[in-house]
Structure formats: structure tokens, C-alpha cells
Amino acid sequence: MKLYIEIDGKTRSVEYTPGANAVKIDGVDMEADAQQQRPGVLSVIMDGRAWRVVLEEHEDEPALHLAGKRIAYRLDDPRSLKARRAHAGGADGPKAIKASMPGRVVRVVAQPGDLVEAHQGVVVIEAMKMQNELKSPKSGRVAELRVSAGDTVVSGDVLAVIE
Amino acid sequence: MKLYIEIDGKTRSVEYTPGANAVKIDGVDMEADAQQQRPGVLSVIMDGRAWRVVLEEHEDEPALHLAGKRIAYRLDDPRSLKARRAHAGGADGPKAIKASMPGRVVRVVAQPGDLVEAHQGVVVIEAMKMQNELKSPKSGRVAELRVSAGDTVVSGDVLAVIE
Amino acid sequence: MGIPFATVYSDVDRTAPHVLESDETYRLGPAPATESYLRGDLLLDIARRAQADAIHPGYGFLSENADFAEACEEAEIKFIGPPAAAMRALGSKTRARQAADKAGMPRTPGSTKGLASLEEALDLAAEIGYPVMLKAAAGGGGKGMRMVTRQEDLKSAFETAQSEAERAFGSNEVYLEKLIDRPRHIEIQVLADEHGHCIYLGERECSIQRRHQKVIEEAPSAVVNAELRRQMGEAAVRLAKSAGYTNAGTVEFLLDDRDSFYFLEMNTRLQVEHPVTELVTGLDLVHLQIRIAQGEPLAIAQDDVRLRGHTIECRIYAEDPDNGFFPSPGKITRLLQPGGPGIREDSGIYEGWTVPMDYDPMLSKLIAYAPTREEAVARMLRALDEYVICGIRTNLALFRRILKDPDFQAARIDTGYLDRLLSETNQTMPSNQGEEQTALATIAAAVFESHRNAAPSTVAQPANSWKRNAREEGLRR
Amino acid sequence: MGIPFATVYSDVDRTAPHVLESDETYRLGPAPATESYLRGDLLLDIARRAQADAIHPGYGFLSENADFAEACEEAEIKFIGPPAAAMRALGSKTRARQAADKAGMPRTPGSTKGLASLEEALDLAAEIGYPVMLKAAAGGGGKGMRMVTRQEDLKSAFETAQSEAERAFGSNEVYLEKLIDRPRHIEIQVLADEHGHCIYLGERECSIQRRHQKVIEEAPSAVVNAELRRQMGEAAVRLAKSAGYTNAGTVEFLLDDRDSFYFLEMNTRLQVEHPVTELVTGLDLVHLQIRIAQGEPLAIAQDDVRLRGHTIECRIYAEDPDNGFFPSPGKITRLLQPGGPGIREDSGIYEGWTVPMDYDPMLSKLIAYAPTREEAVARMLRALDEYVICGIRTNLALFRRILKDPDFQAARIDTGYLDRLLSETNQTMPSNQGEEQTALATIAAAVFESHRNAAPSTVAQPANSWKRNAREEGLRR
């Protein structure tokens, strides 16, 4: 099975055969023995050293916990046109501002039609008695504003769209 | 919702409305507040005292863990003809001897056609270096013997049928 | 202790563990604390219905509320804590500073009453010398607090501190004290019975703080020797005795780099970090609180208190260190908790639990005990490595960073340590380790993704989990 | 201790925690211990490849194997344990009894060599008086052991014991000793460095046994006072010194009801129950073992060893007390583990883990520590109440029964206690409690069954799990 995994902005190809102790990364052979301890938990032996790798499932951005670090990754499926397109169109198309945590909207700073700079605050959310300003991912115009003060949002909700 | 629950050989009717704090057992009103703490774990308050009740799922005989005791129960569904029949036919029909744990068959004591007494040993299973004799549930004749010495069995496997 | 006890719960606590562990349980009210846990009248009603002899106030909510302690006294239900009068005498920081003077214990130079005017502030600051701290008398949590390094800044700082204090505590009383340079936060646990005996149970080092919130606590402190411990302990006991204090309490000090200590304030209740004292003294503080409240004389004398070993406690929070420590509520999708020798965890979290957004996001107190500080650090690091929480962000990585820091390991810490550490760029790992780990992560991701695509049945329970049992085969003896 | 270490694993242990915790790891061989963990030659090969300075043998498999210790010595790799010669001197029970005589320590009356003939057995039994015990010199686990109460039974018992011993241990050497009536099993932990210093770390009470297997261990023993502890400890130290013993070891005694103690045997390794000694002494035995093996002199003198508090350990097994304690392998379908003050658990089990059928079914060591025995019992009972294991049967209920038994609580125990308790009918609960619990169970079953029929989404994460956080709101300080 050949997969494309993106970590830290760099995509590598991995050829992995379940059960075998050898994998290829970008065509280079590596010896690694990966065994599942229980669902979501791997024990991987590489160069005589064992590592525990724990999977954090997430729709958009799954992550691995490895040696105390959290490493986000993305599966690039070259067969999937949609994935390629979404990936390619990244910087230019409209960008959504999503709630990074559940909370309540306490303030909407920008209005629809406003021009905003990258990293300029658009919506303020409160959770656990602390406030967090959600910022525009790019310079552009506020095309949509989907929430108003007092709304409750859950993680992943689209709050605004910048185009 | 009205259910029939059998515990210790006695069947009681329970009328339970999710969300309400009142239930009826055999038509008698009782005040009990049952809240799920997480799947399979209830916190039940009755007479000002809270109890934790944990569900042990099992195909044939689910059980509850309550105050350090394990209490097996059975759901009697009066609408299910099959359940009624299985229940009613209990004592007289053919009875299976099932493996109560995974292990290896080390010895078969009775042969097909043999007459056996209730509680007479039929098959011996070994697990964790200890041997356990599985006994006939009733007096009768060994109608079927489905295993022989050396076989590996898993929990619930039918080893023999006594008729 | 065999004493039957009743608990109370708000609606959101209906299924909490404390409800299940009690002999009787009573609904107190709806979720908001102002309608439940802060309602002393409802608590007393329930105490009467339950025919309770005493109330243990825990360590939040009403535990430092003198009015509630008084209401219990009037209702002839024993409040397990100090008398209302002692709580009042030590409640405001200025009154506590007066009490410290009366008890002849050192405190920072400065005022012992609220400042009447800017002129008084300017005169006093000139007398004790800059830098100085302005503090709210009713304060806590860093509110109404301002550092002033130059005379020309005092006016604006004084006004800001006053208005902040007014807003936060309903009192604009502000006092002034000399700033101690890079102090350690050292606190003394005291225990006093109702027959005039008072002892101290050693110190806790709580210098690792962020925004005046404790993050790591230790006992004993690496810099407190037997003589300093005796001096600080005896000062704390004098203060408690002078105020007629009984039951458990904590006297907080600042310690400067010349081993001079200064009274900071007193906490008139059991504290979150009391387990570190329990582990090094071998005592059960809650049981001792109850015995004291029953009127028993202390069964232990000062000489019976012996410290043994070293304890470190990490407060694990659902917060995102990469995002300004913003709270990170949400569902815990996977949880691997540590265990083994010397590791104790006080928490109620589990896989599938949703950390709510409405409350303080403390998840767990992870505690390591070992014969020496060095070994306790090693045990804590191992436990932190084993600990994985998925689905929410936590400050676990922060603890790994602190416990690996050479300054922390050498106990070169003070209350500004953590802010300084956080302002530094996190050291990157050696680059070849980075490459190895990226390769590992790439492989692991590929394995997980191919499992995900496979039918569930192929992701079977591996036979290999027989592990531990194999190693212990033949050990039954 | 900062020492890098390598581990080994058999194929079934590939994903075991110890593999993950090590700096390097090596495959030893297939699952059967005879092809992996008992293969000293393979272990030494790996030790050489890993350039190891020392090997810690754990507490099973080769840890008591003198040949392996010797092979390590020859390979100039330090075996972390006693020298091979000391292991041999104390390995057989008869040779150990000779060593005890040499060290001038009390042992049960009887032979110190294998019985040459039935006549010798008859003469000796007549001399010391019935009842007597026949025991295999190479024995363990109750095999080759027979109690004889009358002369006429000796012949058949002697023959059976010999043939059992031959089959189990490959040696038919059998000796005879006087039976001690209702003895306690008390063992002394010793620690000896390579410079002639040897100390004892107090005793463990291991009288709660079933079929000669320890079930509960405690420290200290409720009946051993300071003077008796000193006598037993000094006797144990004499034995260790006389045999040139170094590193950690345990000297087992029987104690009769007149406080006379008799040497039983010596365990020349660390034991499963060593945590109870660690908790009451505050020492880390594995670290001390390594320091000794490094050639360091003991840093603690006998006077530095102080016992504090009380510890109880329960060995939790996957076995069915209602079915003759037959092993109960299978999948753990639901697991609720206890925690909190004074509770420690050493286990590697988790929800979804399948307890295998091929190995000893020990699941966990549950350990309670408290200032007093009474409080330790109370903490253990609370922990046992919180502990739920579904899917397999366990002996948890047995521990609840023991810890609630007035005789256990009063420490009226001996090695026959548990068998007597098990032969009694379990007391039924008061009948109205039974009715209440049946009603509760009926309601709970109905709620679970209605959940089961409902769509999964209605069995939602309840908001009420906010619990603990609500209680701790405002405590951040």
C-alpha cells in the first residue's frame, strides 16, 4: 500500500505492507517494526529503540503523540481529485474562520463587507471565563459572518468567511 | 416502557420512563433517580443513597455490578415467542454443555450414547495450567460430542449435547 | 474513620464520584455556584435534615467564608476549620500584616493599613525604597496588583490598582510593600487543636507559578534546611496562635536569596496542594482536621513530625500552551494514564469525558514521590512520558519542559522562573533526532491510515498483550 | 538513576510496556519461557551486543538461578543479585537449614538433610513428636509436601512426598520437620552491600495464603513489636552474612502464638510483594539493588531504617472464587480502576485487553497505604468498592470479604486463616438490604435495557460529568 503523508508541510510517500518489518519512505528502505498494542496505540521499533505512537483522530487534522510531542499529519490521497484541489487552492480561495473550541460568542469585531488584514481579530469567543480572539487567516474582505454575540458555538463551526 | 427482568429466578415487571424519577416494580411505585455517568455505568439514587451500577454485557446472561456483588439478570420479552419457548422448554429439552472459558480440551470423559447423571463430568478443559471438569446439566444421554482431546475451544463453544 | 457522611451536589454534579462514595446524598441546587455551593443557608438546611454533627467545607467555595463558619457555630453544627473570628483576623491582607507584627514575625517592609492618599504612598515608597508593590488588601489572583520601579510611575499605578481592586473585590483598599527580588514562594502547613497545641508540618515550595497561579508544588524545598524550617515553622505557629487559629491552615512566605523570609498571607483552609505534605510527613490531613474538630488534642507533637523523601505535584490543565494557555475544553478521545512506583494521580477524568467550558479546567493532580528530589524528578518525567491525552490540548508538554530544565533540576527557581522560561524560545531537538522522529511519525501515520481503511476485524486484539503475565510467570509466592 | 538500559522481549511481549520504556530493546525468542526468558545464553549474547555492564534479572525466571548468575560472573557482566555461591548455599531447603544452624538462628525441629530411609523418618518423628511435615528439599508451591499426624500414616506419606518431589523437581530429597500450630508467615527483607554491611528493612506479614500462595501482604505485622523485629531482623542478617549474601533478599519465618520464630527458607531475589516494604520504609529497593551491584557501600545504616504507616497489598487474579478459583481468562469488557489518597496500583491491564489462558492470571497488585492499619484497611475497602472488572471473573469479592472480616481487622490471622474462612458459608447480607439491592438491580437492568434499545445518540455524554471541576472552581491558588 502506498500512501502520501504530509507532516510539517512536507509530503512523503510511504510504502507499507502490513505484517512486514520493512517500509519505504520516498523510495528509501527503512527497517521498522510497527505493532498495534491496542486500537490507536502503536509500538514501533526502529534502530533497536521502541517508541509508543498514539493516534489522535480528527476529521481535518489527525495527529500523533510521540515522545511527548504532538505531530499533526495529513493523508494526501493522490487519487482523490477533491483532496488535490482543496490542497492546491489553499492560499487563494475564500478561507473560513472556524471555532477552535466550544464557547460563546461575546463580541463580533468586524462586519460583513469589512476589509481585514491577516491576523486581525474578527470574532471573540469566551470559554472557561477566558476570552480568545479569532483572527483572519489572510488579508481580504469579510464575505460572510455566521454568528452574532451570544451565540453558542462548538468546535469546528464556521464563524466567518474571508475572501 | 414496560420490561420484565428476571433476577435470582424471579421475574419482575418494571415500568420505567426515561427522564422521570419514578418507576414501578410489579405495579408498586418507587422513587429512584437513575443517571448514566458514562455508557454502562449508572448512578442511582434511592432513599437518599447513591449507588453505582455497572453493566457487564453478555449475550446470554448480562450482569450488574452493584456494591461489590455481581448480579446476573435476564430480560424476558413477553412479546418474543422464541424467548418464551426457550425459557419454558428449559428443563426438559436437550441441553448443551458450553465452554465457560477458552482453553484446550485435555480429556473427554463420556462417549456419545453414554448415559450420564446430572453433575457428572463430561469434558475436561485446561487453561492457565489448571484443569476444569465440565459437568452435565441434567441426567440423560450424550447425544452429541463435538470436541476431542487437543481441541482448542473459546468461551461459549458447544462441547456436547445431553438429551 | 468509620464516620457516616452525607454529600451534596448541584445538578451538574449529579453523577460525580463524591455522590457515589457517600452514605447519604442531597441535591443542593442548580449548576451555578451562587445557587448551590455558595448557598450556606441551603447547606445548613441539609445538614439539619441529615442530622449532621459537622460540615467539612472542602477547599473551595465557602471554606474561607467567615460568615458561613459563624452561621455553622450559631446552628451548633461544627465547621471543620478555624473559628470565624480567626478567619476574619487573617482574612484581609492588611489585617494579616498587623497580626504578623503582633506575632513578631518578619514581613516585607511597607504599610499594614490601606493607603489613605497618594501622598502617604509617595512618602512610604521613598522611605522603604523602590521598587515597590501595590496590592489590594482583599486581593488574590494578581488583581489590583502593580509593581512600581520609579517615583514618577506611582501616581498612575496607585489609581489603577485602586480601581481594579474596587471592581474585583468591592473594596479599593490598597497597601504598599517593598518588592522582594526574585523571591521563592515557600509556605508552611500548620495544624492547631482546640487545646492550644499548634505544630507545623514542614514547608511546600510553590515558586513555579504562572500569572500568580501555582503550577508545580514540592515538598520539601531544596533550599530550606532544618534551621530555616524551624524558624519559619515557629513563626507560622506564632501567627496562628496569636489569632486563636485552630484546624489546618497555611502560612505563605516569600524567601529571598539571602534566606530571609517575609510573611505574605495566610490561607485559612486546606489547600489543593496538601497531598505533597501528606506524602512527606505520612499524615492524613483530612483525618487530622476531623479529629481536631471533634475536640481531640493533637496526637502528634512537633518532634514526631519527620519529613521523608521528596514529592512533586503537577497541576494538569486543559489549556493550550501554544495558544496563550487558553482553555481547551472538549471531549477526551483517548487517554493513557501513568502508574507504577511512586506515582499517584488525583483526578476524575476518563476516556470519553467531555471537559466542560464553564469551569476551571484543572484535569488532574499528578504526584510523584521518591526518596530524593532527583529520583522524584525522574519518576515524574517517566509518568509524563507515559501520559497521553487526545482530543483536547493540555499543559503536559510544559511540565516535560520544566522538569528537563537544568535550572529546575538544580532547584534554581523563584516566582519569576516560569515566565522567564516561557519567554525563551523552546530549544529545538537535535536535528537528527528530529529526522528520526519524523520518519517514525510518517510510518505510524501510514500504519494507522491503513488500519483505518481495513475492516475492523483485522485490527484485532493482539495476542502480544500477554506481556506482563509472561514476565511474572512462576512468581506466585 | 539516569542509567541507560536495554530490555528483552519474547514474541508475545513485543508490545509490552517494558519494551516501550527502555532505551534499547532486543528480541529474545518465541513465547515459551524455555525458548526465551529462561535462555541465559541468549540473554548474555544480547547483553554483550548491548555492551551492558549489568543485568537485572527481575523477580521471576532466572532471578534465582545460580548457574545463570555464575555465567554472568564468567562473562564479566554484573548480575544484580547475590553471588552464585550464596544462591547455592541457600537454594535447597536442607542446605538452608544447615546454614541457619551455622548462623545460630532458630528453625523448626527436624532434619537438616534428606531422609535416607523410612526408618530415619520414623525415628525422627518419634523424637520431635507428631504432627510433622514432610517437605521436598527442592520444593515450592506446596508440591512434595505432606502433613502427618499419626505414626501409622508416615510410610504412605513419605512415599507420596518422594514421588511427587521426583516428578516436580527431579529430586526425591525429602526432609521432615515439626508442624507449627497455626503459624504466621513473617518475612524479613534484608539488604547487603559488597563491603560486609547488611541491614534489615523490617518485616512483611504474609499469612493470608491459599494453597501456599500469598494472597495479601502487609507491612508492618500487627503482632511484631520493636524487640521481636530486632530479634528476627538480626537473625536474618546473621544468615545472610554467614552465606556471603549480597544485594536484596528475603528470609522467611514462621511465628507461633508464643512469639517464637522459626526459619523457613530464604528467597534470594526481589519479591513480588516488595512494594509494601518500600512504602513503609520510603526506600526504592530496585535503586538500592543497582547501587549495591555498582559496588557502592550502603548509604543507610540500620538506625536510619524507620517504619512509618501501614501498607496492605492485594494480589488480584483472574480467577473465579465461585468455581474453585479456576482461572478465568477472557476479554476485559469494562474496567473501572480505583485511585485517590494512599492507593497505588501496579498493573498493565486495560479495557479491551484479553487475559490470556496460557499464563499465571495475576492482573494487578492493589496497594493501600495509610498512617495506621485501621485506616489502610478502610482505604483498601474503598478502593475495592470502586474497582469493577467486567468480562472475566476475579477474586475482588474475596478481598472485600477478608477485609471486612472481624478476625482480619483484629489481625487474628495465621497461614490457615484463609482456608478456614473459605470453608465457612459466606454470611448473607441482612434481608432488607437484599431486597433493596434487588429492586435497585431491577431498575438498573431496565434502564440499561431501554438504553440498549434506544438509538446510540440518545445515550449521550451527560453534561453532568462536569462534577469535580465545579467543586474545584475558584481553588486555583
Could you outline the blueprint of secondary structure elements for this entry?
The complex is a heterotetramer, with two copies of chain A (163 residues) and two copies of chain C (477 residues).
Chain A: E1 2-7, E2 10-16, E3 22-25, E4 28-31, E5 33-38, E6 41-46, E7 49-56, E8 63-66, E9 69-76, H1 81-88, E10 95-98, E11 103-108, E12 115-116, E13 121-127, E14 130-135, E15 140-145, E16 152-153, E17 158-162
Antiparallel strand pairs in A: 1-2, 1-9, 2-3, 3-4, 5-6, 6-7, 7-8, 8-9, 10-17, 11-13, 11-16, 12-15, 13-14, 15-17
Chain C: E1 6-10, H1 17-21, E2 24-29, H2 40-49, E3 54-55, H3 66-74, E4 78-79, H4 84-91, H5 93-102, H6 118-128, E5 132-136, E6 146-148, H7 151-169, E7 174-178, E8 184-192, E9 198-210, E10 213-219, H8 226-242, E11 247-255, E12 261-267, H9 274-281, H10 285-293, E13 310-317, E14 319-320, E15 326-327, E16 330-331, E17 334-336, E18 343-347, E19 354-355, E20 362-370, H11 373-386, E21 388-390, H12 396-404, H13 406-409, H14 417-423, H15 431-453, H16 467-472
Parallel strand pairs in C: 1-2, 3-4
Antiparallel strand pairs in C: 5-6, 5-7, 8-9, 8-11, 9-10, 10-13, 11-12, 13-20, 14-15, 16-19, 17-21, 18-20
